[in-house]
């Protein structure tokens, strides 16, 4: 089954073709993907402007689809189904991909399915050669979400803990802004932190001894105060680099300790990390080392499949379509959508 995936929930227009018949081959079923990021469009305003995001998705969807079909050497008539992001996200941005996908599917006489963006992230690591088996604990860390989930199967999700304020990615982005780094903050902090001393400054590890919830707003304040105290944002580059490294270390330390705690709490031995922050090398390496100590394993997708993309939507859509699920002709997007409301497969 060839599934066209469309991702338009925020500021990336991502399209991909997943072909279940090519699973197990070198490309693991991912025939091809294209991604257009609106970062430059929103940079001027210091954050994503929803109306501009929607308008830009509309401009890019048709040319990107044509580019993808050409790249994959696939004709529209060869597509078997379309999966689009139905939520959560910006309502206008979601509507562009959903209406485009639903209409195209109608025109082609094929099924369409609305996919949960975070389920797309969660399942992306399963597209690899040796996918982790259910059940596993999933750490979802993106720009809008930080959640620890016990995943018993597709659509069988139990929230173990989540952030009570900022998301991990959001905290990376805000700390980066304070250090004068551009959006997205995560990769820029990681780059600045290279060759710096992560033990220079002792930043807080919030809520370590309180269950599996997270809180990151205090870390923001701590970075703000540190920059003020050291005058690091615009003076010595080494000071800025050491702040970035110390901040990244505190974030990773907090996430890793909570993951270990979650695995022990539910007696599971596999951890799957997903979402933009899971692209972070320091997080991956620290998890590899710490989980080895408790005989557990960590699984993640290649970096391009950690941040927003169309491939994860195509794959999640495929899993549900092959179980007989599909959406009817009505297009309804859900800007706020708890993953626990998803039907099981
Ligand atoms: O999953 P994603 O692409 O979009 C959302 O669904 O939110 O995640 C974007 C977030 C941003 O906050 C970005 O700074 C963060 O992921 N991110 C990273 C890295 N790459 C992206 N954070 C830390 N290290 C990275 N290498
Ligand atoms: Zn995302």
From TrEMBL:
It catalyses: L-threonylcarbamoyladenylate + adenosine(37) in tRNA = N(6)-L-threonylcarbamoyladenosine(37) in tRNA + AMP + H(+). Fe cation binds at residues 117, 121, 308. Its EC number is 2.3.1.234. Substrate binds at residues 140-144, 173, 186, 280. Residues 30-315 form the Gcp-like domain. GO terms for molecular function: tRNA N(6)-L-threonylcarbamoyladenine synthase activity. This is tRNA N6-adenosine threonylcarbamoyltransferase.
């Amino acid at each position: 089954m060839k599934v066209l995936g469309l991702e338009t929930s925020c500021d990336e227009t991502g399209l991909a073709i997943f072909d279940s018949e090519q699973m197990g081959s070198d490309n693991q079923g991912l025939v091809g993907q294209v991604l257009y990021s609106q970062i430059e469009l929103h940079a001027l305003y210091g954050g994503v402007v929803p109306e501009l995001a929607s308008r830009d998705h509309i401009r890019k969807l048709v040319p990107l689809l044509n580019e993808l079909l050409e790249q994959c050497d696939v004709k529209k008539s060869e597509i078997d189904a379309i999966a689009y992001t139905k939520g959560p996200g910006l309502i206008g941005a979601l509507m562009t991909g959903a209406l485009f996908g639903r209409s195209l599917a109608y025109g082609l006489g094929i099924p369409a399915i609305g996919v949960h963006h975070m389920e797309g992230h969660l399942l992306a690591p399963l597209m690899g050669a040796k996918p982790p088996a259910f059940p596993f604990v999933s750490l979802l860390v993106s720009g809008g979400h930080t959640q620890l989930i016990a995943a018993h199967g597709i659509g069988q999700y139990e929230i173990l803990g989540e952030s009570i304020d900022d998301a991990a990615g959001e905290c990376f982005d805000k700390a980066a802004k304070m250090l004068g780094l551009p959006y997205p903050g995560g990769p820029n902090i990681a780059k600045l932190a290279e060759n710096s001393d992560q033990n220079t400054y002792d930043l807080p590890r919030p809520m370590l001894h309180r269950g599996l919830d997270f809180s990151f707003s205090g870390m923001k304040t701590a970075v703000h105060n540190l920059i003020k105290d050291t005058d690091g944002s615009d003076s010595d580059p080494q000071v800025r680099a050491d702040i970035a490294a110390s901040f990244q270390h505190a974030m990773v330390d907090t996430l890793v300790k909570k993951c270990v705690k979650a695995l022990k709490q539910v007696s599971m031995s596999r951890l799957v990390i997903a979402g933009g922050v899971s692209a972070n090398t320091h997080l991956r390496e620290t998890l590899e080392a710490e989980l080895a100590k408790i005989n557990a394993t960590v699984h993640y997708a290649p970096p391009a499949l950690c941040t927003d993309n169309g491939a994860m939507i195509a794959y999640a859509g495929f899993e549900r379509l092959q179980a007989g699920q599909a959406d009817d002709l009505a297009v309804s997007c859900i800007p706020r959508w708890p993953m626990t409301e998803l039907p099981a497969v």
